[in-house]
From TrEMBL:
Protein name: DUF2769 domain-containing protein
One matching Pfam family: DUF2769
């Protein structure tokens, strides 16, 4: 079992959900082409925290997530 899973592992990362994901628009976005860090896990390429859009994300609201900076380790 992989340890590189997001806090909300098990949330479907389908095309439908990925369209509501704020990761690609986030100022702290660490990795082009990767999204839904809340479900997939943090990025090894994480940059310095420069602001977070998680709380305003459609996916975050839809599933009742708690927290922010899911892309950061």
């Amino acid at each position: 079992m992989s340890e590189n899973r997001g806090k909300y592992f098990g949330v479907c990362t389908s095309y439908h959900h990925s369209k509501g994901c704020n990761c690609p628009r986030c100022p702290s976005y660490p990795e082009k082409g990767v999204f839904m860090f809340c479900a997939k896990g943090s990025s090894a390429k994480a940059k310095q925290k420069a602001g977070c859009l998680c709380a305003d994300c459609e996916v975050h609201g839809k599933f009742g997530f708690k927290g922010d900076y899911f892309c950061q380790p």
